[in-house]
C-alpha cells in the first residue's frame, strides 16, 4: 500500500514536471513546494474544464468584465494606497504564500483572500472591494506593485485550483515590463487583462523606468463535474484561507502564515549553517530527505 502511494506521488510529480515546455531542474522540482501538492494538482488538471495551455481567452470568464470596465476606478484606489505607502511587503514575516517575492521588490495589498477577513480592504478600497464581492469566482485579489528593476524568479504556484488574472492599472505600458508564462511573454497595459495558468513555470521583470501596479486575482478553476468543483472549492476554502496574511492590524492571519513566521526565524539558523559550509549543508539536507522517505516506505 505504501509503495503504491509513493508510486502515485512520483507519477504526479512527473506530471507536474513535464507539463509545459519550460521546466525547473528536476532535483529542484522534486523538492519544490509544487511537488508536495502534486497529487492534488494532478486531480485539478485532469478534471479541469479549461484547456491545458499557458494563456486562456478572457471571453471564457465573462464574470470578470465588470473589473475591466471599472479599471480606472480601481486604479484610483490603488494609487491612493500607494501614496499612503499601504502597498508593501509583509512587516512580520507572516506571508507564507509570497514571502520570497519581497526580497526582489514586489509588494502587495490584499483585497480578498478566500474566507479570511480583511477589514482594511473594505475601509480603504470600498469600490474595488464591492466589485470583487459581487464576483464569487474571484477567490483572492490584491494590488501588486513591481518597481523598476523588480523581478520574480521562475516558479510554479503550488495550488492548481485557481487560475491567475492580471488587470493592468498603472503600468509602464512598455515591453520591458512583462511576465513570461511557459516561454510566452505578456507585457502589461493599462486597462487590459490577461488570464494564465500559474502552475506553468512563470517569471516577471520590470526592466522599465516606471512603477507597475496591477490588480492580481485568483479565479476558481472551472471543473468538468459538479463533484470535482465542490472538492476544489472545499480545498480552496480550507487550505488557502489558512495561508491568509494581514495588511493591517485587525486583518486575519491564517494558521499557515502564523507557523511560517516561526519557521522563518528558525530558518535563520539553517541559513547560517549553509553559509558555514555548503557541502556539509547539502549532504545533511539530502541525508534527512532520504531518511524521511525511507521512514515513510518501511515503517
Automatic annotation (TrEMBL):
The keyword Oxidoreductase applies. NCBIfam families: lipid_A_LpxO. It comes from Pseudoduganella rivuli. PANTHER family: ASPARTATE BETA-HYDROXYLASE DOMAIN CONTAINING 2 (PTHR46332:SF5), ASPARTATE BETA-HYDROXYLASE DOMAIN-CONTAINING PROTEIN 2 (PTHR46332). Belongs to the aspartyl/asparaginyl beta-hydroxylase family. The chain crosses the membrane at residues 280-298. Residues 69-222 form the Aspartyl/asparaginy/proline hydroxylase domain. It comes from the Bacteria. It holds the Pfam family Asp_Arg_Hydrox. This is Lipid A hydroxylase LpxO. One of its GO terms (molecular function) is dioxygenase activity. Keywords: Dioxygenase, Membrane, Oxidoreductase, Transmembrane, Transmembrane helix. InterPro entries: Asp/Arg/Pro-Hydrxlase (IPR007803), Asp/Asn_beta-hydroxylase (IPR051821), IPNS-like_sf (IPR027443), Lipid_A_LpxO-like (IPR047694).
